[in-house]
Amino acid sequence: MPSLLIQLILSSLLTTLTTSQSSTCRTSCGDIPIKYPFGIDDGCGSPYYRHIFACSPENKLELRTPSGRYPVRNLSYADPHVVVTDPFMWHCEDGEKFRPTRPFSLDTGTHFKLSPQNEYMFFNCSEDDVIIQPKPLFCEHFPEHCDSSCDSASYLCRHLPGCSFALPRSTCCSYYPRATESLRLMLKYCASYASVYWRNVGAPMPYDQVPEYGIRVDFDIPVTTRCLQCQDPLKGGGTCGFDTQNQSFTCLCKDGNSTTHCKDYDIATHSRRIHVIAGTVTAVSVAGAFGIGAAVWYLKKVRAKAPVTCGVQNNENRLF
């Protein structure tokens, strides 16, 4: 009877652990949808974007970069980009009070890049260290054909979005840093900065874009045949993920994990073999780990007391 009970406990606990590993990935954080190639649970999405996003305890999506964690305002998959807010940059409500700031930066090893739709305004820069001068009007539309000076006559400096008259005594110039190092150097000689991106509103030109505060970051969506096959509704409609140990492709399904798709007949085997962590570890799983340890200890104790029969088992000394 004790041996049968232990068998049932072990079977139940192993099933619980397997189920927690093959649970589906979270599909949203707050009101922002989480789709491929991203994931907020390890093993979900593409390994190229592993540990990039985090869902805070307040259910707010955050972007992780070498310079910090930034709240995500918008995430678009149709026009692949992320808009984040930098809590250290200047805002209208700050007025003439410039807080200590730090430059926003991206990991060059990721598939993220700063969008050319961003424009940066710098305030109270040192004229001894920064080239500040007005630029011709066409430079606002074709900055690559102009020099790298900071434009003191830019449209944004003349019309601060949302607060045109917020800085009556401060100087402003507009500049697009082509690298993170350029932004860092600018902030070394300027009091603060603000990033504005041009949001497309779908209106006729020239009113098709409006300026909004934030940093737009563009990204690539890596498309693979295996992922499309995994997502195919006719093949189970799984979620694309990866093995957390070797980062190989994994199709996450309700009944387990597969290396192909959710209607693969070997899915039960895959669910035991693939190491994918989707979601948080439940208290039941933790308890299961302790339960397995206790069961193993009990078996050793029973084995130690079992009578020696020279390798022959009978109904009295049989353990299983």
What does this structure look like?
A six-stranded antiparallel β-sheet has the order 3-4-5-6-14-7, with no helix packed on it. The longest helix is centred in the last third of the chain and has 23 residues. The protein starts with a helix and ends in a 15-residue tail after the last helix. It has 320 residues and is an alpha+beta fold. Strand 1 and strand 2 form a beta hairpin. It is 22% helix and 23% strand. InterPro entries: WAK_assoc_C, WAK_GUB. This is non-specific serine/threonine protein kinase. Its EC number is 2.7.11.1. Pfam families: GUB_WAK_bind, WAK_assoc. Its main location: membrane.
Percent helix among the residues?
10-25%
- Main beta sheet: strand number and arrangement? 6 strands, antiparallel
Spatial order of the strands forming the largest sheet:
3-4-5-6-14-7
Question: Would you tell me the structural class of the helices and strands?
Answer: alpha+beta
Beta-strand level of the residues, as a percent range? 15-25%
Indicate the radius of gyration in whole angstroms: 29 Å
Overall 3D shape:
elongated
Task: Report the uncertain regions.
Answer: 8-22, 270-320
Beginning-to-end CA distance, first to last residue: 10 Å
Determine the mean pLDDT: 78
Continuous helix count:
6
Tell me the total number of β-strands: 17
Strand and helix order: HEEEEEEEEEEHEHEEEHEEEHH
